[in-house]
Write a structure and sequence with these properties.
Largest sheet of chain A: 5 strands, mixed
CATH class of the largest domain in chain B: Alpha Beta
CATH architecture of the largest domain in chain A: Single Sheet
Helix content of chain B: 40-55%
CATH class of the largest domain in chain A: Mainly Beta
Strand content of chain A: 15-25%
Radius of gyration of chain A: 21 Å
Largest interface: A-B, 59 and 67 residues
Order of helices and strands of chain A: EEHEEEHHEHEEHEHEEEHH
Number of helices of chain A: 8
Strand order of the largest sheet of chain B: 7-8-6-5-9
Largest sheet of chain B: 5 strands, mixed
CATH architecture of the largest domain in chain B: 3-Layer(aba) Sandwich
CATH topology of the largest domain in chain A: N-terminal domain of TfIIb
Structural class of chain A: alpha+beta
Oligomer: heterodimer
Distance between the termini of chain A: 39 Å
Strand order of the largest sheet of chain A: 2-1-5-3-4
CATH superfamily of the largest domain in chain B: NADH-ubiquinone oxidoreductase 51kDa subunit
CATH superfamily of the largest domain in chain A: ADC-like domains
Number of strands of chain A: 12
Number of domains of chain A: 2
Helix content of chain A: 10-25%
Number of domains of chain B: 5
Radius of gyration of chain B: 24 Å
Structural class of chain B: alpha/beta
Chain lengths: 308, 627
């Protein structure tokens, strides 16, 4: 968690964003400065509770004096900076980032913002060609690949990994935002069950040598599910309802409560559909959990359903 | 952190391989025999174990060489020894091309099929291998693999032979012909790597007057410290000690020396920036991860003049206040790594490395670290991550390494040619050095001449020499054929044509022509040269070498390869104009939004070929006059 210096010690700086003078605190990022004045900057790999990894590049902005565009999510402001968030260069790069992702990843369960941005920026994922069939991505060897034949284009499509009763990993939906790795590791859980493996287009989230989760260090805290922006990591209950076409958020009720297990008292949000708990989350802005839970809070709700 | 690893024990060979780097385990808590006492005492030492993470790559190398592959029990054992999460270690190991995670044939022959070797043979050098020995990856005792540039471009063909088990290791074979593969297959697992001849360096100017960087290459025994000293070695360090840190930096500034790795950053400014950092310790890294296709200059210098680098790095340490230096040698250069280790050992024995160098109270030592097949590890921040035992992914900049580099400390990183040029600056004096070359690009520069040229090899010329003069030095186009194009600067460079022979080879001259000297690559293509195939190979190269961290490069290099494949096959998706618009968009997003220089330049050769109308599949398109 970031420590916040007393307000009196934080210096103010002034920057120009899209022709508008913006005063913000030293140490703030360009993204924070933009949000302060209501300028929308799209983000995918950024999350308030995690250190920015600036890998998706959808938040790039034009900074005068910088040769390349800079990531707004991680670049701290400096006095006198002149930033453009809507220039042609910025719009082209954002459009292409969205297009490259949408052409290679199944974004069907990603949030509504992503689809709105795809429309707003005019990304056309279908202009890349016909998608190749799913492949065994876990067997890719760094530095070696055979180009696809017949004009097919590569995607990250692959079978869903379902090796435990708690959650599924559908890496055909993974945009490699690194959030799950961060949440599993240094930023929250310190379990380090998963990491980015391989490289280039074959880079993927993996346990050691792709062993199944029960053989890995995973403790089923589900904090990776909590940060996943595309639904690649999903409760088994949600996955099954979606597979049957029965997932319906309009019929769901979210009930805030306190976890009954230990004295920490984490806030739980129970997502209930047809009087059954289908998913458990915790609010990101909660000062106890920062969105994180343990296996009991996240998955220990079966007793409430009365089936066993 | 509570580590969970597999319960299967490693084999004795695997255990010994790991212990050969880390030493025997301290206790049952870290992978040793469990004794009754272990159950009663927690000895601690976790942070000590974890502080050895920087030995991850050397340990993985030991497993690869002694066992031939990295198994899950072996990985688990090394993780227990280092207190590393196995998923994390696998993430690191799987980012390198030279490590394998499945058992296979004990001898693997990595055969170069990259731009220079392609240009030299006029086709795909692996076609014949595939026809004779079956597809890549097949074969029980000996197998072959396609490889990116192995840095023996002057020979026009090359292979890296990797053998596992007793007497295992790596060695280079260049030139490499099909007959060599026959011999390797015949000896099979009994292959004795020591019997393979070490490749020679082609330095056609050898012995010529006026050579500076190349004056010892091929003339002074690379194994002998005495020979090096007799040839003027260690005079530069003596001079540096007289001048002191500020004096050395002042000389570099007077010399106006610019970095030779590709970015042309002023060396004096970099060294001064490191020296001024209040945070201690400081580090200095010599970047010998030369992997730019068509580049072999570092290999020649390290193979044949290793003491020069030891001396230059010591001077860098003196000037920047670093007491520890690292030389990061690409994994495909086994000879360079061995000779450098030997040179450092000799220097240590003779008091030229260590606590009190030359009796002047100077403290400096160095370590040689080997890469494992990753072009991206040559990017300076990825290089720091690689030495630290992390994935070779570039870091977000700023902060730059001069502020936060290796182990988060102020770090100077320079190319080998730059460091060796420092010796010349100190020998000649900064002002005298600045009078060589052009006002904007001082000194001499190495150029790696390869492809269809009469006398390929490493050449040293004064900055500002014209491209035509350099080609004449090399005897012109092989067999007197007409010149089609020259690939200048490497995979991230550009094409120049027969009309550009007046192009002055200086930083400003290349920039004015919209080109870049890059790492000094000059690959010559004659009228039979297939530019489209070269561009397609470069696209494949970037697809294979992207680290995968950022979207523009990870997906963009994949898409770029696909578009080029469609153009080569003359099967565009939509119209030709659609495909060209897509290439332009890919160029824009990779150049503008990638994290590091790899992605930012991954499309430059494609753009250059398009602009010059050299791309076969894009005949009669806008801006192109056809091929």
């Amino acid at each position: 968690m970031t420590t916040v210096a007393p307000v009196a010690l934080r210096r103010q700086v002034e920057v120009m964003i899209d022709g508008q003078a913006v005063t913000t605190w030293q140490g703030a990022t360009i993204l924070e400065a933009c949000r302060d004045v209501g300028i929308e900057v799209p983000t995918l790999c950024y999350l308030e509770t995690l250190a920015p990894v600036n890998v998706c590049r959808v938040c790039v902005v034009e900074l005068e004096g910088s040769r390349a565009l800079v990531p707004a999510c991680s670049r701290p402001v400096a006095a006198g900076m002149v930033v453009h968030t809507g220039s042609e260069r910025v719009r082209t790069s954002r459009r292409m980032v969205l297009e490259l992702l949408a052409s290679s990843v199944d974004l069907s369960t990603a949030g509504g913002d992503v689809h709105r941005w795809i429309d707003e920026y005019g990304a056309r994922p279908d202009r890349h060609g016909e998608a190749a069939p799913p492949s065994a991505r876990d067997r890719a060897h760094a530095g070696h690949h055979e180009p696809l034949e017949g004009g097919l284009v590569a995607t990250v499509a692959q079978p869903v990994k379902r090796d435990n009763d708690q959650y599924v990993r559908d890496y055909a939906k993974c945009i490699l935002c690194y959030k799950c790795v961060e949440a599993c590791g240094e930023e929250a859980q310190h379990t380090f069950a998963i990491a980015v493996a391989g490289r280039g287009f074959d880079a993927r989230i993996s346990t050691e040598m792709d062993v199944a989760l029960p053989e890995s260090a995973c403790v089923y805290c589900g904090n990776c599910i909590g940060v996943c922006p595309t639904g690649a990591l999903m409760f088994v209950s949600e996955h099954e309802l979606r597979a049957r076409g029965e997932w319906d958020e309009s019929r769901q009720e979210v009930t805030s409560t306190i976890c009954p297990y230990c004295g920490v008292g984490c806030t739980l949000e129970l997502h209930v559909q047809d009087n059954r708990i289908v998913k458990v989350t915790s609010p990101l802005d909660h000062d106890v959990t920062s969105g994180n839970l343990c296996v009991k809070g996240r998955f220990g709700f079966e007793f409430a359903q009365g089936d066993r | 952190m509570d580590l969970r690893t597999t319960d299967a024990p490693p084999s004795t060979t695997e255990r010994l391989a790991v212990d050969s780097v880390l030493g025997p385990p301290e206790s049952g808590w870290f992978g040793g025999e469990r004794t009754p006492l272990d159950g009663h005492f927690a000895l601690g030492g976790v942070s000590r174990a974890a502080s050895r993470r920087h030995l991850l790559l050397p340990t993985l190398h030991a497993l690869q060489e002694q066992v031939g592959w990295i198994s899950l029990p072996a990985l688990a054992y090394l993780c227990q020894r280092m207190d590393l999460p196995p998923a994390d270690a696998f993430g690191v190991a799987s980012a390198y091309a030279l490590f394998r995670f499945e058992s296979g044939s004990p001898v693997v022959v990595h055969v170069c099929d990259d731009v220079a070797c392609r240009a030299a043979c006029g086709g795909d050098p692996t076609d014949e291998l595939a026809a004779r020995f079956g597809p890549a990856g097949t074969g029980t005792s000996v197998t072959w693999q396609r490889s990116p540039c192995l840095g023996h471009c002057e020979h026009g063909s090359a292979a890296l032979v990797q053998k596992a088990g007793a007497g295992g290791g790596r060695t280079s074979v260049a030139p490499f012909v099909t007959g060599d593969m026959d011999r390797l297959v015949a000896s099979g697992p009994d292959l004795d790597l020591g019997e393979l001849p070490a490749p020679l360096a082609l330095v056609p100017q050898r012995g010529a007057q006026g050579l500076r960087l190349l004056r010892r290459v091929g003339r002074v025994d690379p194994a002998s410290l005495d020979a090096y000293r007799a040839a003027g070695g260690y005079e530069a360090l003596r001079r540096a000690i007289e001048l002191g840190p500020a004096g050395v930096i002042a000389e570099l500034k007077d010399a106006k020396l610019l970095g030779r790795g590709g970015a042309a950053f002023p060396t004096g400014d970099k060294w001064e920036a490191v020296a001024r950092q209040p945070v201690r310790p400081h580090y200095f890294v010599a970047n010998a991860d030369e992997s730019e296709p068509g580049t072999f200059k570092d290999r020649v210098l390290l193979d044949h003049d290793p003491y020069a680098l030891v001396e230059a790095l010591t001077i860098a340490g003196l000037a920047t206040g670093a007491h520890m230096g690292y030389v990061y040698v690409r994994g495909e250069y086994p000879v360079a790594a061995r000779r450098l280790e030997h040179a450092a050992g000799q220097a240590r024995i003779r008091g030229l490395l260590g606590e009190d160098i030359m009796g002047c109270g100077l403290r400096f030592d160095l370590e040689v670290r080997r890469g494992a097949g990753a072009y991206i590890a040559g990017e300076e921040t990825a290089l720091c991550n690689s030495i630290e035992g992390r994935r070779p992914e570039p870091r977000n900049k700023p902060p730059y390494p001069v502020e936060r580099g290796l182990f988060g400390k102020p770090t100077g990183v320079n190319n080998i040619e730059t460091l060796l040029s420092v010796l010349e600056v100190l020998t000649l004096g900064g002002a005298a050095y600045a009078r060589v070359g052009t006002p904007g690009s001082t000194g001499t520069r190495l150029f790696c001449l390869s492809g269809r040229v009469a006398r390929p090899g490493l050449y040293e010329v004064e900055m500002g020499t014209s491209l035509g003069t350099l080609l004449d030095l090399g005897g012109g186009v092989a067999e007197g054929r007409p010149l089609r194009a020259v690939l200048l600067g490497g995979a991230a460079g550009s094409f120049v044509g027969p009309k550009d022979l007046d192009l002055p080879l200086s930083f400003e001259g290349a920039r004015a022509a919209g080109a870049s000297l890059g790492s000094g690559v000059v690959v010559v293509l004659d009228d039979t040269g297939d530019v489209t195939a070269v561009v397609a190979r470069v696209a494949r190269f970037f697809r294979d070498e992207s680290c995968g961290q950022c979207v523009p490069c990870r997906v963009g290099t994949q898409r770029q390869e696909e578009v080029l494949g469609r153009l080569v096959a003359a099967r565009p998706f939509g119209t030709l104009d659609d495909e060209l618009a897509l290439l332009a968009d890919l160029d824009a997003v990779m150049r503008d939004a990638s994290i590091c220089g790899l992605g930012q330049t991954a499309s430059s050769l494609v753009s250059s070929a398009l602009q010059r109308g050299l791309l076969g599949g894009a005949h009669g398109t806008k801006g192109g006059q056809g091929g």
